[in-house]
Amino acid sequence: MKRTREEVDATLEIAKLNAAELLPAVHCLAFGPRASGAAAGDFCLLELEPALCQQLEVGHSLVIRGDKDEQAVLCSKDKTYGLKIADTSNMLLFIPGCKTPDQLKMEETPNNIIHTEYTTEDLFDQIQASEEEIMTQLQVLNACKIEGYWRILEFDYELKLLNHVTQLVDSESWSFSKVPLNICLQELGPLEPEEMIEHCLKCYGKKYIDKGEVYFELSADKICRATAQMLLQNAVKFNLAEFQEVWQQSVPEGMITRLDQLKGLALVDRHSRPEIIFLLKVDDLPEDTQERFNSLFSLREKWTEEDIAPYIQDLCGEKQTIGALLTKYSRSSMQNGVKVYNSRRPIS
Q: What values do phi and psi take at 106, rounded to 5?
């Protein structure tokens, strides 16, 4: 149905616009007959950077994701972008064949009402989730798929599985670089579900095949890190020297513990006497950037870049660096020849 001049004038009156102050030509945007009766309010104009536009032009797809109480994001095949709402009335940007006000002024007999269709096919593309990015994050979270559903195991249970595996490796005198899957399943199957044993091996090792047999190379760094988390989660603060001694004694023989294995998991306070270490996980900090910095500066007034980097790395956008984040959300100064960062605003 095409609008008449009377309907256009009525719309202008409702919008409290004076027709005498406008050019006589009016663009009416309508959706094509294949739009299944959709109204204009069912669609939104989306502004994209050139790289994303090129992906759509060659036939790739984008999808908007997020729960009702979360910030919506736009996913390509392998990346995620933030979405922001921007009010605009600049319909000339996407209506084909539209003329600018300057072009309309040059016409001797401008047409009062110009009708334009835009089809569903021009606005929508096939929906495709960012599977590669999702699978990567599921691996980071040590999530496992049980009967079609993704779940995250309780840390204590995950550690119980790991202890079964490391004890078996010790009893069989295997190398941690060559742990056979089939024998693990046979020996540990009576104790725990086989899929849980294999999941544990995937979380803490790297799968490979040798002469037709499946093996896992277990990561010493991951095992040492999990052991440290187990020790620290039951104490508010830990004497650093005592912790390092207990930690080394708690890991499998042959593995060496190092504090750099605990980046983003624990924080060392070298200014206290004696020096202490305490649990501080990235996952427990706010997701909002300003709130994250507020939390960190409330824990410690001044940070070196080396100490704070593991706790803000995940906040960096595709083209953003840790240095850029620190410049925006903190102030720098020199302390004993070392650059440190503190809050730009008072922390209550």
A: -80, -15
How many other CB atoms are found less than 10 A from the CB of residue 39? 8
Q: Please give the backbone phi and psi of residue 167, each rounded to the nearest 5 degrees, phi first.
A: -70, -35
Q: Are 93 and 25 in contact (CB under 8 A)?
A: no
Residue 239, SS3? strand
The radius of gyration computed from the CA coordinates of the chain, to the nearest angstrom, equals 30
User: Per DSSP, which regions of the chain are E strands?
Assistant: 26-31, 63-65, 73-75, 80-82, 113-118, 143-146, 149-152, 179-180, 205-210, 213-218, 238-239, 266-269, 276-279, 303-304, 330-335, 338-343
What pTM does this model have?
0.61
The tokens for 188 are 């540990």
Average pLDDT for consecutive 10-residue bins of the chain (348 residues)?
73 76 69 54 74 82 78 81 65 52 56 46 33 69 76 88 95 94 94 92 94 94 95 88 95 94 91 90 88 91 92 84 91 90 82
H or E segment and range at residue 6 = helix 5-14
- Tokens at residue 269, please? 């306070």
Cβ pair 176, 127 in contact under 8 A: no
Which residues make Cβ contacts (< 8 Å) with residue 292, sequence separation at least 6? 285, 286, 311, 312, 315
Q: How far apart are CA 203 and CA 216, in angstroms?
A: 10
The 10 Å Cβ neighbour count of residue 175 is 11
Indicate the residue type of 173.
S
- DSSP for 7-72, please give it: HHHHHHHHTT--GGGS-S-EEEEEE-GGGTT--GGG-------HHHHHHHHTT---EEE--TTS--
Calculate the CA 35 to chain-centre distance. 34
Query: For residue 343, what are its two tokens?
Result: 């809050």
